[in-house]
Amino acid sequence: MKLKEFYRLLLFIILVPALSSCFQVIEELTLHNDGTGEVILTINLSQSKTKVQSVMLLDSINGYKVPSKQKIQQELNEAVAYLRKSEGISNVKSTSDFNNYIATISFSFKDVSNINNITKNILAQQKIKAPNTSSYNFNKTTKLFSRKYQPVGTAKTEYNKLKSKDKAVFNGATYTSIYRFESPVTNSSNPASNVSKSGKAVMLKSSILDLINGKINVSNQIQLSK
After folding, report:
1. pTM
2. CA-CA distance, 49 to 34, in Å (whole number)?
3. I need a labelling partner for 219 at 20 to 30 A (CA). Which of 60, 94, 144, 186 fits?
């Protein structure tokens, strides 16, 4: 559900080698028993905000053009506009905190399949070609929620082409997925995931470097109580 339009902001993070401290990409999905639900996508650079503030004062750094706050906000707004026109998507909202450098997009869906291809299509609006790495499905009869993740085959190759100072941006960076349900979870197939004490949420946290290097797969099949 790597989320992470708003995802252009993630691209900005990746392209700014000065950000050697942590950043977080967080995907939160709430699924109701009728198949409807909500999604919140967050990019959090607050742990690196001092460095980000310094970078934002520059026109470019290490050959990368630094986008203005206005440009980032514009592309966030374009992502919201695209989502509002997407089938099965409603209640689209966004926030951008340029003091702490945290951006979010949230929306509701009629069926979890409505969010398939969203990342790919939004990036396409920005003329960025990206593979579709995730798909979601919920069988209301069997109450099985599935998230299939296909690693990007070229990610490791492209990462290895980077200079050491460019690779440093990923040190400490994390991706977290949190899935919340109305019914208790009886099984979660991914061994890296953890079921909450309430039994109604599943969390998986990974370093982005492990995702790039294919050391972890965030696919999961979560069986809910019938």
Report:
1. 0.84
2. 40
3. 94
Residue 82 reports pLDDT greater than 60: yes
Q: Name 141's Cβ contacts closer than 8 Å, sequence gap at least 6.
A: none
pLDDT at 122: 57
Structure tokens at 150: 């296909």
- Region of 31 (left: φ > 0; alpha: ψ -120 to 50; beta: rest) is beta
Distance CA 72, CA 83 (A): 17
Rounded distance between C-alpha atoms, residue 139 and residue 62, angstroms? 48
Phi-psi sector, 70: left (phi>0), alpha (psi -120 to 50), beta = alpha
Both tokens assigned to 122: 């939004």
User: How many CB atoms sit inside 10 A of residue 189's CB?
Assistant: 12
Domain coordinates in residue numbering, the chain: 6-224
The residue written with tokens 């949230």 in the block is 106
**What three-state secondary structure class fits 124?**
helix
Nearest-10 Cα torsion for 190, 120, 16, 19: -30
